[in-house]
Amino acid sequence: MITASGFEGRRVAVFGLGRSGLTAARALKAGGALPVLWDDSVSSRMQAGAEGFAVEDLTSADWSGFAALVLSPGAPLTHPEPHWTVGKAKAAGVEIVGDIELFARAMAALPETERPTVIAITGTNGKSTTTALIGWVLKQAGVRVAVGGNIGIGVLALPPPTEVDFYVLEVSSYQLDLTKTFAPRAAILTNISPDHLERHGGMEGYIAAKRRIFRDPQTAPYLGVDEPETEAIWRALVAEGRAVDPVSVIRPMTNDLGMYLLDGWLAYNAGGQPMKIVDLSQARSLAGRHNAQNAALAFLAITDLGIPEETVAPALLSFPGLAHRMEEVGRLGRVRFINDSKATNADAARQALSSYERSFWIAGGRAKAGGIDDLEDLFPRVVEAFLIGEAAGSFAARLGDTPHRLCGDMASAVKAAAEAAAATGRDEVVLLSPAAASFDQYPDFEARGEAFRAAVLALGAVPASAS
Fold first, then answer.
1. What are the C-alpha distances in Å from 423 to residues 13, 335, 360, 417, 460?
2. Greatest extent of the chain over all pairs of C-alpha atoms, in Å
3. In this predicted structure, what is the pLDDT of residue 467?
4. Secondary structure of 360-387 in HEC code, one letter for each residue
5. Gap between the Cα atoms of 14 and 98, Å rounded
6. Would you tell me which of 66, 109, 229, 437 could form a disulfide with 192, CB atoms 3.0–4.6 Å apart?
């Protein structure tokens, strides 16, 4: 655990007792603070009390006695309207922070020679894969690395700085909104497309939240520049005099690109000539242009931090992949089953659909704004779609003449898709890439992905680890 310092002997309000909230309370207590906890859930309050924390109804508390409010990233800071704790904190002049900010202050309190290197990753899509990929490469390089934040382990539950050389952190827009001094050594922005707009008051607010990862002028910025939004950020950083490593997987080589995709290789400029570095066709789990972007960003950030290219390149190729993101879970005859449950919006699903010339597509769930409208150009790659959840009807209407079936639940969709794929007698892919949230049928995308895996294995498929 990382100790949260700076609030010794003072009361700190903590609202939201999920993974990040309870972990923050533990870190604050370890640092000598007096955390006061509250959550709308009775069971969460009972768990906090069982751990010995002070549990107090913050609706009636004296806010003048608090040094800070540690707010769960799940509670709105500004939109669609501020959480009630935000109003009380502001009225009392109490600063509002999140777990990433507590981590930043803990690092800043250390002597500079004792601070681990921090790499932070954000973006609409690809941030989890890039985070896991960087962690994997650093482990192969033999350094002590801890990976967490918005992925896996909450940031304050990671091992203490004395046990770590590198922290690799995925950070969400919600978490970035709650930062003030977060200054990673290297920061990656994978891409930006519309998502969580209701929480940021629109696209402008969402972009501003993501851009906060580059707030500190000492942070080395790396970003994909294949969307107008990220290209604008790149140009703005350059105008500020920042040294930026941009990545593109769709444009030809230019002198200002840090890395790009050339004939399936990661390449960069060497004296005005392209130099091929990594043959991604040999990669175990980096199919598709979106994964080329993830790999390029990882390569640049890691090598700039002193890890040799000859170590990084083979480690990229051996990356086993991230669960629920383009994850092969099994094979049945000539049919492969790909779990891309993490594709909770159309832009994420685009990455998967465009990676295969043809697929039997399982999609649906709780639709986000726009549904699958932006995927129309990829419908010709869909041999047949198998639709589940609340969005099944609207997705069916949007698919039009593209063959599709309303399956309702995951097990039915997997069975129907497997039978249809096997009937072609050729190598096929059954792809779960929902393009929708999971909350109509599952608590999260992980549970949805595990339901897919279980349904695949129930058909007698050979698990990918054994094939």
1. 60, 10, 12, 10, 16
2. 71
3. 46
4. EEEEECECCCCCCHHHHHHHHHEEEEEE
5. 9
6. 229
